[in-house]
Amino acid sequence: MPQNSSFCVLRTFLWPLSSLLVFSSYSSRPLLLHRRKMASHVVGYPRMGPKRELKFALESFWDGKSSAADLQKVSQDLRCSIWKQMSDAGVKYIPSNTFSYYDQVLDATAMLGAVPQRYGWSGGEIGFDTYFSMARGNASVPAMEMTKWFDTNYHYIVPELAPDTKFTYASHKAVSEYKEAKALGIDTVPVLIGPVTYLLLSKPAKGVEKAFPLLSLLGNVLPVYKEVIAELKAAGASWVQFDEPTLVMDLDAHQLEAFTKAYSELESSFSGLNVLIETYFADVPSEAYKTITSLNGISGFGFDLVRGTKTLDLIKSSGFPIGKYLFAGVVDGRNIWANDLAASLNTLNDLEAVVGKDKLVVSTSCSLMHTAVDLVNETKLDAEIKSWLAFAAQKVVEVNALAKALAGHKDEAFFSANAAAQASRKSSPRVTNQEVQKAAAALKGSDHRRATDVSARLDAQQKKLNLPILPTTTIGSFPQTMDLRRVRREYKANKISEEEYVNAIKEEINKVVKLQEELDIDVLVHGEPERNDMVEYFGEQLSGFAFTVNGWVQSYGSRCVKPPIIYGDVSRPRPMTVFWSSMAQSMTSHPMKGMLTGPVTILNWSFVRNDQPRFETCYQIALAIKKEVEDLEAAGIQVIQIDEAALREGLPLRKSEQAFYLDWAVHSFRITNCGVKDTTQIHTHMCYSNFNDIIHSIIDMDADVITIENSRSDEKLLSVFREGVKYGAGIGPGVYDIHSPRIPSTEEIADRINKMLAVLESKILWVNPDCGLKTRKYTEVKPALTNMVSAAKLLREQLASAK
After folding, report:
1. For 133, 217, 393, 727, which has the most beta carbons within 10 A of its beta carbon?
2. What's the angle, vertex CA 497, arms to CA 495 and CA 499, rounded to 5?
């Protein structure tokens, strides 16, 4: 990859912010920032670009339309723009190596040379072929497992490790990017996934006992970390940041001991180097706090003080190691609300009294990759709501405004504008709907369950639906073609009439229905051609939501989502899906699934208001979806899928907080469908998470059928049922991975179904892909679904002949 700074072309389409004037979201007046660097820090920054430049470059490269050099050029321009933006804004501790072509954990796997054998890597620097094969699979081998990054909607690639895994320094990306920034005159803080977190987030490779102690490999990975540290020091790095977010989890003594062992062994490598251990997403438990703050050779510790308010109390009550830096994460990296600067400054003043003026650094609570990029690009957003928001670029301004104020250079005008915006949000009449508040409050004392047992409901549904054994279905969406997106854009821009739009969508639905009939799928979907995103589509039709034009956030790889903003009380003014579902059902005699997104997923995949408890907002959404379910049933839709893909994602990281969350999350789902007839079949879907620890809550949701991602997880889900969990509802563990372009054979899918039949009764088993098909092409979807149906029919024949 070229390293010369001349490759860093600061194109105006990348960053509309000038080098000295950063526009505040609170005022149209430009805010002049001092060139003197303040004690400020950013944990990480979005890497897709403000207009998703990296997404389009990646997809062009994957499609063979552009070269590796083209991809590298776009990537370098983005990196350079980000570093220069933060430098010009006044950030003192600027992160590097937070850029990734796919995923930061996969980058760590590449750095450590921990490539599974099936990818045929023979050593040397890991290139794009091996890297993207691990992420996406290829024609010969499947991709590595993908799961959620803690409790976020970001997905990481799970490392696969074995006792004989050979670790070797195989990607010099961290050093290369540090040098790249330095060539621009910007001294950055290289960021590495910490060795303990890396191992704790890994899984035993296929064929290795699941009880294999991954931390036993700690001594094997540390030599590679030492090599990286040595190269960074030689390149001139003065700080290195180790991200160790697993420190916020409930760790046992052995796991905590691993941190002591790791950083004690690395300590000799730290000579002449400042080391920051960064945590985020929750409180750090007291034992973990004691463990890391007792480490020698560590210069500073970073804590999330937005989601970790108890950590703040811990610092005040337990003290802080003398002479160490506290990187105080007071600017929210997970949400898009403007910081309450006055409240944050009070917190920082309190902390300064504990740690000392020269040792306090103002920081973000976590990487800003979980927020949208730049509010400047939102030219169509409601002005009042816009004044309440701060995206990543604005959060950089907030961090520096707080650092300046802490240093005695408070920008009174900026703080006043911020206070006015905070007051506006609290008093705005558009935020509160008393009728909605009252209806949601009334839900708290009730159970909201369907009156009949699931086994009796399944019998009633089978009499009406008359489905074969091992019924086939898909999860909802079909490929979103360029033509389809163009039609939606033109309709939104008033370039085509409503009649033309309806006819175009109707034609697409008819095509999808006919295809499924040709493939002989049992329960059909309409393909969702009218939908931009499974959450945004519903939010656009509910009150209390606002939307952005360029508020994109990376979900995985090149996949980006544009989360709605829930700013007020939520209600459903009118039906949202009945028109399209009824139209689709009229085209076929097969059962047609009505497709809805569940309340917990809408909540967890939105930027949620932070002025009331999350469960109250969730109950409001549940009531809105309940009305839609009842209208679908009244319209004759016999199968209704209420996706809760994000239910597991929202599970708090600390066990002491999980029961409360699961109680209201499961209750919210049950609210949506508690009043339907026994003959109406309720499905739900979940994807890319570890469900084993919440299986009893999933059962308590009381859905008739649940479909769950399974193919990348080596059938981890099935181990729950092997271990004796009783499950009587229908279940469809995904039989192939839709996030890979690879097309599985009939035999491969049949083998997966057979593994399921070994632990699940045939009468409850469904056959379906892992997830929706919108990101795939029809050239991939048609043969994959053909093979899926063929595999189901093959197994039906075998089951019939075995009787």
Report:
1. 393
2. 150
C-alpha distances in angstroms, 36 versus 40, 92, 263, 504?
11, 9, 33, 57
Q: Which residues pair with 553 in a beta bridge?
A: 561
Integer CA distances (angstroms), 344 to 91, 316, 366, 393, 407, in order:
18, 16, 16, 18, 14
Residue 142, both tokens:
């499947």
Between CA 373 and CA 45 the distance in angstroms is 8
d(CA 208, CA 655): 28
**Amino acid letter at 484?**
L
Instruction: Quick: pLDDT tens for 302-345.
Output: 999 999 989 999 999 988 999 999 999 999 999 999 999 999 99
551 is known to lie in a ligand binding site: no
Helix (H) or strand (E) holding 404: helix 392-406
For each of the domains in the chain, give its residue range(s) and CATH number, in order of start: 95-298 (3.20.20.210), 434-687+694-802 (3.20.20.210)
687 labelled binding-site residue: yes
Residue 322 CA to residue 314 CA, distance in Å, equals 15
Pairing of strands 543-546, 21-23: unpaired
The answer to whether 776 is annotated as binding is no
Candidate list 370, 590, 683, 739, residue with the active-site label: 739
- Containing H/E element for 560? strand 559-561
Say how far apart CA 180 and CA 94 lie, in whole Å. 13
Are 134 and 170 contacting, i.e. CB atoms less than 8 angstroms apart?
A: no
Q: Which residues pair with 161 in a beta bridge?
A: 204
On whether the CB atoms of residues 25 and 386 are closer than 8 A, the answer is yes
Q: How many residues does the chain have?
A: 803
Location of structure tokens 């690639």: 157
Q: Is the confidence at residue 349, as pLDDT, over 50?
A: yes
Q: Is residue 569 a contact partner of residue 437, using CB atoms and an 8 Å limit?
A: yes
Q: How far apart are CA 263 and CA 229, in angstroms?
A: 12
For the full predicted model, state whether its pTM sits above 0.70.
yes
Report the DSSP pairing between strands 274-278 and 705-708: unpaired
Is position 477 annotated in a ligand binding site? yes
CA 146/CA 131 separation, integer angstroms: 14
The pLDDT value given to residue 713: 62
Quick one: residue 237, left, alpha or beta (phi over 0 = left, psi -120 to 50 = alpha)? beta
Determine whether the annotation assigns residue 476 to a binding site: yes
* Paired sense of beta strands 160-161 and 203-204, if any: parallel
Alpha carbons 166 and 182: distance in angstroms, whole number: 32
- Torsions phi, psi of 417, nearest 5? -65, -40
Cα 644 versus chain centre, distance: 14
Residue with tokens 């944050």: 344
Note the pLDDT of residue 715: 62
528 labelled as ligand-binding? Answer: yes
- Angstrom distance (rounded) from CA 64 to CA 353: 58
Instruction: Determine whether the annotation assigns residue 194 to a binding site.
Output: no
Per-residue pLDDT tens digits for 626-671: 999 999 999 999 999 999 989 988 999 999 999 999 999 999 999 9
> For residue 140, what are its two tokens?
């010969």
* Cβ neighbours for 7, distance < 8 A, ≥ 6 positions apart: 73, 76, 77, 80
The one-letter amino acid at 37:
K
Q: Return the closest-CA partner of residue 645 out of 147, 69, 59.
A: 147
**What confidence tens digit (pLDDT) does each residue in 173-188 have?**
999 999 999 999 999 9
CB atoms within 10 A of CB 219: 11
Helix (H, G, I), strand (E, B) or coil at 113: coil
Q: How far apart are CA 80 and CA 250, in angstroms?
A: 38
283 marked as part of a ligand binding site: no
Tell me the per-residue pLDDT of 567-602, one tens digit each, with 9 for 90 and over.
Answer: 999 999 999 999 999 999 999 999 999 999 999 999
Coil, helix or strand at residue 114: coil
Token digits of residue 143: 């991709």
In the residue annotation, 409 being an active-site residue is answered as no
User: Which residue, 106, 334, 367, 103, is CA-closest to 243?
Assistant: 367
